[in-house]
From TrEMBL:
Name under which the protein is recorded: Large ribosomal subunit protein bL12
UniProt organism field: Lysinibacillus xylanilyticus
Function according to Swiss-Prot or TrEMBL: Forms part of the ribosomal stalk which helps the ribosome interact with GTP-bound translation factors. Is thus essential for accurate translation.
One Pfam family per UniProt: Ribosomal_L12_N
Large ribosomal subunit protein bL12 oligomerization domain span: 3-47
Domain of life: Bacteria
Amino acid sequence: MNKEQILEAIKAMTVLELNDLVKAIEDEFGVTAAAPVAVVGAAAGAAEEKTEFDVVLASAGAEKIKVIKAVREITGLGLKEAKEVVDNAPKALKEGVSKDEAEQIKAKLEEVGASVEVK
């Protein structure tokens, strides 16, 4: 592997994978990463534009039945499964969706009285 291939592999890693890599390097070579280096790495990851969002049902609100119907429509779940999702809020409804789709789902659920978070 050359340096460019290593850098490309590191760019493709998640934050948790990077954390594990740092720990493995520290153990292997008997060194410790300085705090400023870790902060710079985290800031660089946060600066990238987020393209995938998770829609989380925070609470059903007063119109629980309407929220269950909306959850069924959005997720394609059956009545029992949709009710379980609503009863167990906060619960992720959709993960890894585009910003537009996340906003549409949020608007649809808030229209029927639910509290929704887009992460």
